[in-house]
Write a structure and sequence with these properties.
With 480 residues, the chain is mainly α. It has two domains: 328 residues, ABC transporter type 1, transmembrane domain (ABC transporter transmembrane region fold); 45 residues, no CATH class. Helix content is 69%, strand content 2%. α11 packs antiparallel against α13 and α11 packs parallel to α14.
Length: 480
């Protein structure tokens, strides 16, 4: 009877799937409860609620997240004992693979059910998964842009106007100093919160996709035109691209907001002449579009070569005995070296494009200010020192948006390629679940309408005359 009960339990697990009560996905407002606790100014550590092996960010308060003080104890342990202390640390359940895999699987199934496998889009799945966090990131980006624009608009301009009057008091200077500290500190703190939100978003999306892909791979009916090396490359390399895109990609929203607000204040400060610098800033956008296309092209070309190299290495490791027997080490080594040199050329071209984009981004504010001032001086426009330095400070505040924009464009371009590779894997045919039923309690295995042949094997544990055999019951065969 115990064997019968264990068989029924196994059959139930196969039909219902694994027990996931510990990582069940929360729906509605309940899924924000743990994240909302990060808004508390201070959260005392309790070993009953948060084990010491859990990542410290799980119980960090608002101030701890602002100043990254949750890392201090961990960094001190690493400094004293080495990186080995990280071996026993695990992520919070809301950041780990289980919950995020369940969510991405549900969203992907809903997408496939609504539009079909061919028309399903992982972009929509991704946006639905991070919609709330993307809105919060956008709000923090607005706050960062506000602090960046208000620093030159209010503090620096009024302080320079105050200095030109001649009657300077230390008390007034301290007020401007406090104002500068307030706006710059607010920009730095909100920027730090924005980064930590995007980093956690990247971790969750990466873990969700990796869990979804791994679950798909173990249920594939066949690899078709894909190899094991390609699957390893997808789960490893492309999953990292997903993390980088979610960590850096949202900052692409900084550029248009900063440019629009900076242009409005520039026109208010210098008049129509400020539009010259704004036009130079706008001219950088087509350059980023071209860079995005080049990056996507190089990424697609590089993936083909990387898959080829990984496939060759997999064959080398699989058939290493045969290669050693026929002394094929040098031909294989030369082939892999040639493939690696081709891959290196693609990576170098991608690095050159990225370097040119980053360098041009930092030169744009300089060209904008020089072109604007030359046009104003040539037209005999009265350009005062406070206005000139305020405009330069404004352009420097807008520089961050251009500095981060190439990385955002690059990460989103690579994300587009990775999502296409993910989809090609997710729409592959799976193994169908086989449902079975045991009709006799004393049967371990039953075959229906089967033709079987077998040798008679003696059982050493029993008497020499006792043997294994198969009994026939109508159209069924029972192993006894």
């Amino acid at each position: 009877m115990d064997d019968r009960q264990s068989v029924l339990e196994l059959e139930g697990r196969l039909e219902t799937g694994p027990e996931l009560s510990t990582c069940r996905e929360r729906r509605g407002f309940r899924k924000y409860q743990k994240n909302m606790k990060h808004l508390l100014p201070y959260r005392p550590y309790s070993i009953d609620k948060y084990p010491k092996e859990e990542f410290p960010l799980a119980y960090a308060g608002c101030f701890s997240c602002m100043f990254y003080s949750w890392m201090s104890n961990l960094m001190y342990k690493i400094w004293r004992k080495g990186v080995g202390v990280l071996d026993g640390i695990y992520l919070s359940p809301i950041d780990a693979t289980e919950q995020n895999e369940l969510r991405f699987e549900r969203l992907w199934n809903e997408e496939v059910k609504a539009r079909g496998k061919e028309d399903a889009s992982l972009w929509r799945v991704l946006l639905r998964a991070i919609k709330s966090r993307l809105i919060i990131t956008f709000i923090f980006i607005l706050i960062v842009v506000t602090f960046s624009i208000l620093t030159p608009a209010l503090v620096i301009r009024n302080f320079l106007d105050y200095l030109t009057r001649g009657d300077v008091k230390f008390s007034t200077g301290y007020i401007y100093l406090l104002g500068l500290v307030f706006f710059e500190g607010g920009r730095s703190i909100t920027g730090a919160l924005t980064w930590i939100i995007t980093y956690v978003t990247g971790i969750r999306v990466r873990n969700g996709f990796m869990g979804l892909l791994f679950k798909k791979i173990v249920r594939l009916k066949g690899l078709k035109d894909k190899t094991v090396g390609e699957l390893v490359n997808v789960v490893g390399n492309d999953a990292q691209r997903v993390y980088e895109a979610n960590a850096v990609g949202p900052f692409i929203l900084v550029a248009p907001i900063t440019l629009l607000s900076g242009s409005i204040y520039g026109v208010f400060l210098l008049g129509p002449w400020a539009l010259i610098g704004c036009v130079i800033f706008f001219a950088f956008y087509p350059i980023t579009g071209i860079i995005s296309r080049i990056t996507t092209y190089l990424r697609r070309k590089g993936i083909v070569i990387t898959d080829k190299r990984v496939r060759m290495m997999t064959e080398l490791l699989t058939y290493v005995k045969l290669i050693k027997m026929y002394a094929w080490e040098k031909p294989f080594a030369n082939t892999i070296a040639d493939i690696r040199s081709q891959e290196r050329v693609i990576l170098e071209k991608s690095a050159y494009v990225q370097g040119i984009s980053t360098g041009v981004a930092y030169l744009v504010p300089v060209f904008s200010s020089v072109a604007t001032f030359i046009a104003m001086v040539a037209s005999d426009v009265n350009l005062t020192v406070p206005k000139a330095f305020t405009y330069i400070s404004l352009l420097n505040a807008m520089r961050f948006s251009l500095g981060v924009m190439p990385y955002s464009v690059k990460s989103l371009s690579e994300l587009s390629v990775s999502l296409k590779r993910f989809k090609s894997l997710l729409i592959m045919e799976e193994i169908e679940d086989l449902k079975w039923e045991v009709t006799h309690e004393d049967s371990a295995v039953e075959f229906l309408n089967a033709n079987l042949t077998w040798p008679i094997v003696s059982n050493p544990l029993l008497n020499d005359n006792e043997e294994y055999g198969i009994e026939h019951h109508g159209t069924k065969w029972k192993l006894c």
